[in-house]
Specification:
Elements lengths: L8 E6 L10 H9 L2 E4 L16 E4 L2 E2 L2 E2 L3 H13 L3 E6 L9 H10 L4 E4 L4 H8 L13 E5 L13 H6 L3 E5 L5 H10 L7 E6 L7 E6 L3 H8 L5 E5 L6 H4 L11 E4 L6 H10 L3 E4 L3 E4 L4 H9 L6 E4 L2 H14 L10 E4 L2 H8 L15 H11 L6 E7 L5 H8 L3 E12 L7 H8 L3 E4 L2 H10 L8 E4 L2 H9 L6 E2 L5 H10 L9
Parallel strand pairs: 1-6, 1-7, 2-3, 2-6, 8-9, 13-14, 13-20, 16-17, 16-18, 18-19, 20-21, 21-22
Antiparallel strand pairs: 4-5, 9-12, 10-11, 10-12, 15-19
Helix pairs in contact: 13-14, 16-17
Length: 512
């Protein structure tokens, strides 16, 4: 369909099975370009961090007997926004047209004259078994795959699915959305002659840190569900391939599997910590407590950046400072060599990595203590800084140890306030509500400001919640609020924090 002038477009996008790493590049492009994003219950809310700041985010989640919007209302919403000239991205868990009602939405869009595009996604049909170590096909077992749903249109007078025939079909059978009707479905299979010993696996919250697999047989799986409290959302796999689960269970054997961990960094910066924890199997959800805003005196900061080449040293004590500095620097200059002969000092490896992104090297960094005191010690070992001009790129509010010490050492110091840390007021992913509803096993703090602003939220803390801190300064701030940092990283950067969490994993409770 040709897109008419003034008319928007709707992308019906598969958001994948849950693991943010399984989202397609095309899906990411659609999220980034969207004016409006309409997202489902099963689409990972962390995908929304790719959205434009001004994008309108609309939750249209649908759980059993709990619909935020009806299907009719969702279709009407997509049409309304597209007719207003908006680029609309409709995020649907898994694939949009595999039991996802994407076909119905596309029909309504076409009837309204709205252009649309299907963006396929990885379906839990194959992703869930794969993450449970169950190959849906295997030369030693089968070469046929049958897919069916356990949840039909509730307006139908009777089921049109012959579960008995499906059960007797050769090969692997994968059922979506049928946990609540599992007893009736397995009974229909047995009544039709399916062996009660047929292996079954149920996989809950597949591909995420909440994943859990329950195995059994057609005869006993219902009883196991009842005794274990196993609940939806889950898929069921029937067939001999279930036997591979114990041998090939690669994902659920990761060190942080089942650990529910909160990340409080800024929305933009959360990725490195979140991704590092997720790779180790953690169920991570981001609850940003701070955001980075420009300094109040942006013009004054820009003047100092412009004169950077006149300094002997430029000192960076945070990645945000690096980013703010070079954002302004490259608005003024086109060549990194315009920084002149200034040498660069950084307080730790994370800051060094950020500086390298701008194709510059760090001349001075602490060997072990990646805090202000460590940087001061490094300067003392370097030699005298008396009468040397030093530009300290810093946050509006930060500890004064670096500036005070360098001044006492005789340096001529200018402080360039690069950014302000302010309270994050938005909660686009619903993480605060999730924290209040489900709690967590561990919360991570990467700076004193994340601690202060989290405590300002006034959220109730679960009794068994553990606290992990990036370093002793942050741990002191935790103590200031009457709490204890159970884990303090020895290396005061993101890899060090992740390593400390892994080392203490046995002390962190496992959520149900």
């Amino acid at each position: 369909m040709i897109r008419k002038e003034g008319l928007g477009i709707c992308y019906l996008v598969g958001a994948g099975p849950g693991d943010i790493g399984l989202v397609t590049l095309r899906a990411k492009e659609c999220i980034e370009s969207a004016d409006v994003i309409v997202y489902d219950y099963l689409s990972n809310p962390e995908l929304l961090r790719w959205a434009k700041p001004e994008a309108e985010l609309i939750y249209a989640g649908k759980r059993s007997k709990d619909h935020t919007l009806t299907q009719e209302e969702i279709c009407g919403l997509l049409i309304e926004k597209a007719e207003a000239g908006k680029v609309v991205t409709r995020l649907k868990g898994g694939d949009p047209i595999v039991f996802g009602r994407g076909g119905e939405e596309a029909e309504r869009l076409v009837a309204a004259g709205v252009p649309f595009e299907f963006v396929p996604g990885i379906s839990s049909i194959i992703a869930a078994p794969a993450y449970a170590g169950i190959p849906v096909t295997h030369r030693d077992c089968n070469s046929q795959l049958t897919i069916f749903t356990g949840h039909e249109d509730p307006t139908k007078e009777e089921s049109v699915i012959d579960y008995g025939a499906i059960g007797k079909a050769p090969g692997t059978k994968v059922m979506l959305m049928g946990v609540q009707r599992l007893e009736a479905i397995t009974k229909a299979m047995v009544d039709a002659g399916v062996s009660p010993d047929e292996p079954v696996a149920l996989i809950r919250w597949a591909t995420t840190g909440r994943q859990r697999t329950l195995t059994g047989t057609v005869a006993d799986i219902v009883g196991k569900v009842a005794s274990s409290g196993f609940k939806a959302p889950a898929i069921a796999v029937f067939g001999d391939v279930v036997g591979f689960h114990e041998k090939l269970n690669w994902f659920e054997s990761r060190p942080l599997i089942g650990k529910r961990i909160v990340v409080t960094r800024t929305r933009k910066q959360a990725g490195s910590l979140s991704d590092g924890l997720r790779v180790l199997g953690a169920d991570v959800f981001e609850l940003p407590t701070i955001r980075i805003d420009p300094p109040e005196d942006l013009l004054g900061f820009a003047r100092l950046v412009q004169d950077a080449h006149t300094y002997d040293w430029i000192v960076f004590t945070s990645p945000n400072g690096v980013e703010s500095f070079f954002d302004v620097f490259y608005k003024i200059y086109k060549d990194a060599r315009s920084i002149g002969g200034a040498r660069i000092a950084a307080v730790g490896p994370g800051i060094e990595k950020k500086i390298k992104e701008y194709h510059l090297a760090v001349d001075l960094m602490p060997e072990k203590r990646f805090v202000g005191e460590g940087l001061v010690e490094a300067f003392k070992k370097e030699g005298s800084v008396e009468n040397q001009k030093i530009l300290w790129v810093k946050a509006e509010r930060t500890r004064e140890i670096v500036g005070k010490s360098l001044t006492e050492m005789g340096a001529i110091l200018d402080e360039a306030v690069a950014y302000r840390t302010v309270k994050e007021t938005e909660d686009v992913s619903g993480s605060r509500a999730r924290f209040e509803r489900e709690g967590a096993d561990l919360i991570t703090f990467t700076s004193s400001s994340t601690v202060d602003h989290f405590m300002d939220l006034g959220l109730p803390l679960p009794p068994d919640l553990k606290i992990a801190s990036i370093g002793p300064i942050t741990s002191k701030t935790v103590a200031k609020h009457g709490l204890t940092a159970d884990i303090t990283a020895e290396r005061h950067d993101i890899p060090g924090l992740i390593a400390a969490v892994v080392e203490a994993r046995d002390t962190i409770g496992v959520s149900g």
